[in-house]
Amino acid sequence: MGTQERKAREFAAREDLFLDTARQLILSDGLLSLTMARVAAACDYATGTLYQHFSSKEDLLLALSTRMAGDRVALFCRAAAFDGATRDRMFALSVADVLFAKQCPEHFRLAQYVFTEAVWSATSDARRQAALEGSQPMCEEVRSIIRQAVADGDLPDRGLRNLDLGVGPWTLCLGMHTLVHADGLLSFYDVNRPYGLLLQHIEFLLNGLGWKPLVDDISASHVAAKVERLCREVFSDVCDHQGLEDLLSDPGHISQSPI
C-alpha cells in the first residue's frame, strides 16, 4: 500500500470515528449540547484535527445526516425492485420509509434540523452537494416507477412530470415523520398508530391520482395485509426484527432520544 493510499484510509477511518462519536453524544446528551470540542475530546484528537474534516459543527451534522440516509436509500431500492404492480411498488416505497423511521428515528430529527435555512447555509458547498447526491437514488426510483406506470396505462399523467406526480406521497411521509417526532403532539390530539394512518392515506391518495388498480377497501386490515406481504417478500430481515405490530403502532412505541 502506497503512502497516499494509507493516508486516505486513515483520513476516512478518522472521519468515521468523528461521525460515530457525534452520533453517540447526540443520543446521550442532545443535539444542542454538541460542540466540536466535545467531539474531538471524546475521540482523543485535537479540535483542530476535527476541523480538517468538517468546517463547522453544522458541516459535521450534515455529514452525519447524509451518512445515516444511506440505509434509507438502500430500503428504497429494495422496495422499488419489488416484483409487483406499479401501484404496489409505490406503496412499498412508503413502507420502506416507515421501516427506516422505526429503525433510525434520530435520522429524521437530525434531518429536520440540518435542512433549516440557518444550518444549511452554514455548511460547505461540498457537504451540501454530497447530501443532495446521496438522496438522488430515491428520486430516480420514484421517477422510474411513475414512468412505467404512465407507460403501462396504470396512471394518467395529468400533464405533470414524473417526479411532480410523486410529490404527494413524499409530502405525506415527510409530514407524518414531523408529527411523530413533535413530542406529545399526536397524543394530545389522541391520534394513534400514525404510520398505519399514513399508509391508509397513501392508498387514498393513489386512488385520487387514478392509479390502477383502484382499491375499494382501504381499511386498517387492508393496509396490514399489504404490509405483511411486503415484510414477507421484501423486508423480511427488517420486519423480523421489529414486527408487524410495531410497524403500525402508536408513537409511544418509538424510542425517544434527546436529539
From TrEMBL:
Gene3D superfamilies: Homeodomain-like, Tetracycline Repressor, domain 2
Signal peptide: none
Xref: InterPro entries: Homeodomain-like_sf (IPR009057), HTH-type_TetR-like_transc_reg (IPR050109), HTH_TetR (IPR001647)
Name assigned to this protein: TetR/AcrR family transcriptional regulator
Keywords: DNA-binding, Transcription, Transcription regulation
Species annotation: Wenzhouxiangella sediminis
DNA-binding region range list: 35-54
Highest taxon of the lineage: Bacteria
GO molecular function, one term: transcription cis-regulatory region binding
Residue ranges annotated for the HTH tetR-type domain, each copy included: 12-72
